[in-house]
Amino acid sequence: MAGTTRPDVPSGITVRRWGAGNGDGLVIDVDSNGGPPVHGIGVEPPAGSSRANGPTWAYVIEDDGVTLIDPGHLGSFGFLSDGLKVLGMAPADIDRVVVTHGHWDHDGGVAELVEASGAEFWAHELWQAYSPYSYGQLLRTDESPLRAEMSRMGERVRENGPRQYGGGGRKPGGAGRDDYESVRSGMKVDRELVDGDRHGSIEFLHTPGHWPDELTIRLGDLIFTGDHVLPEITPHPSMAYDHPADLAKSLPSRYRDAREVWGLSAYLRSLHRVCQLGQGLTVMPAHRLFNRDRFRMTDERRAAETIAFHLERCDILVDAIESGHVDLESATRALFSNRPLTDGYHLMSAISETISHVELLEENGDVRVVDVEGGDGARLELTGSRHYRDVIGELIPG
Ligand SMILES: [Zn+2]
Known about the structure:
By secondary structure, this protein is of the alpha+beta class. The chain has 13 helices and 17 strands. The two termini are 41 Å apart.
């Protein structure tokens, strides 16, 4: 850390090595309240990656062998093994690597770690089912007028913006997304996890919605939440995609209805599940555990706050439509009126989040999306009901 004053260290955390103000390189021990030894490493993204969320936090649990959760990006292996060294460990000490979900900043580093360590690779069973598909194949624009419009806007933004969205070169994944996807598509999961599986004192819960294969991993009072619950920021909900058609037939019946695992409704139900796990749980997030020179500890109440946040967002969106913001970009700019959305990346992220909300409102019969005949757009119409208020409200405890 720069300067002479150290930040406060919360109870339950012991710093083994200080790192940067955003947590890069920070290495900690975590008190598991009488449970097995637990450690955390702020794994820096490789050069050229987005640094908006800081490091990916990898966690090491010494319980019935050594389990490592979320090794970080493809290209981060040097930072990960450096952190392990601070803990007196080497990659070869890792028996298994588990990923919270199939995003590049979480599972991108699995192949390098497995090769260096001989560790097994564990993930939710949907991780394996989805792994042959590129993000482009999953995030389909032909499934709804709004997503088609988002795609057209993306094209326009790509032609203009200095920070490109989805184009060649600099990618959110750092190492090119093509590299990442080719590594990912060749990987084999050694143990496919399902909801409720256990290993030693570790329990795996399926909490889809930010991504279909998301796991929340519980060890006593600690919950390793991946991107499902984060301090400081609200995770990006997925849009309500369908499964790829050829995949849908072979999936176990519990996932056949894609709405179980994709979209804001699934996400809110999974947050509700975390609220139900009990009280006094400590969230071990994959991002922002330490940021702006401070630990950002949070607990299960953050899940309830996140549900309430989305209820309020739906209110704002419905009010915006009511006051005439009936096309996607205008509704998005009204919903995100506190942010300038001047660059393509932030604009397109905001658009996709708005679509997630519109899809939830459509599901509940509160909004209709009308495909404008002959035009390049879709119009949002209110039906007059606000069923979403009860549906989301029921998910908020207390
Ligand atoms: Zn993610």
